[in-house]
Design goal:
Chain lengths: 116, 110
């Protein structure tokens, strides 16, 4: 299967700081990437859809100024959690869409964010 | 009613058993059906992908889609302790966002 690399795998930061998470498709070009958030023992919650060269589309209830998404190339999307607070602590996962006609999403390994 | 329903379990079976995991859905426009496996603190890993109705087999895994009943299944034969994970069904209408089930936590006991 296709490989999606997500970095870092775990980050601890102080309240009020910003954290950037990178998502890369290593062996294919992804015009569309997705960002999810997952709480313990729950399913994935879609936060936003990231399209290369255009603004991200955010799901209802997700603060676009809080979660900045940039998809500057066909292999890289970034999620920046701005002015992080303890309630932002969660597991963040990205995925990349391989082939629009098949609609297969391949996922990164996830980033565990802990805000102190 | 949720768009995709999946029994969250937990489900515990002995090693070697046949495991059946299921999801039901309400949106008849869904065309793409997937099963993902997720280990603790890891991202989901694609196991099976099916377009429209039918069966698909890959090793010990078989995926079935019955669009008339809006029901999909994943069967695991000769289950192994390494199969212990959370299994997520997911589906979509096209090149759009996936709709996930709640996930079923599966434990295979040696």
């Amino acid at each position: 299967g296709a490989v999606v690399s997500q970095h870092p795998s775990w980050v601890i930061c102080k309240s009020g700081t910003s954290v950037k998470i990178e998502c890369r498709s290593l062996d294919f070009q992804a015009t569309t990437m997705f960002w999810y958030r997952q709480f313990p023992k729950q399913s994935l919650m879609l936060m936003a859809t990231s399209n290369e060269g255009s603004k991200a589309t955010y799901e209802q209830g997700v603060e676009k100024d809080k979660f900045l998404i940039n998809h500057a190339s066909l292999t890289l999307s970034t999620l920046t959690v701005t002015s992080a607070h303890p309630e932002d602590s969660s597991f963040y996962i990205c995925s990349a869409l391989m082939g629009a006609e098949k609609n297969i999403q391949y996922f990164g390994a996830g980033t565990r964010l802990s805000v102190l | 009613q949720k768009e995709v329903e999946q029994d969250p379990g937990p489900l515990s079976v002995p090693e070697g058993a046949i495991v059946s995991l299921n999801c039901t859905y309400s949106n008849s426009a869904f065309q793409y059906f997937m099963w993902y496996r997720q280990y603790s603190r890891k991202g989901p890993e694609l196991l099976m992908y099916t377009y429209s109705s039918g069966n698909k087999e890959d090793g010990r895994f078989t995926a079935q889609v019955d669009k008339s009943s809006k029901y999909i299944s994943l069967f695991i034969r000769d289950s192994q302790p390494s199969d212990s994970a959370t299994y997520l069904c997911a589906m979509s209408e096209g090149a759009q966002k996936l709709v996930f089930g709640q996930g079923t936590r599966l434990t295979i006991n040696p």
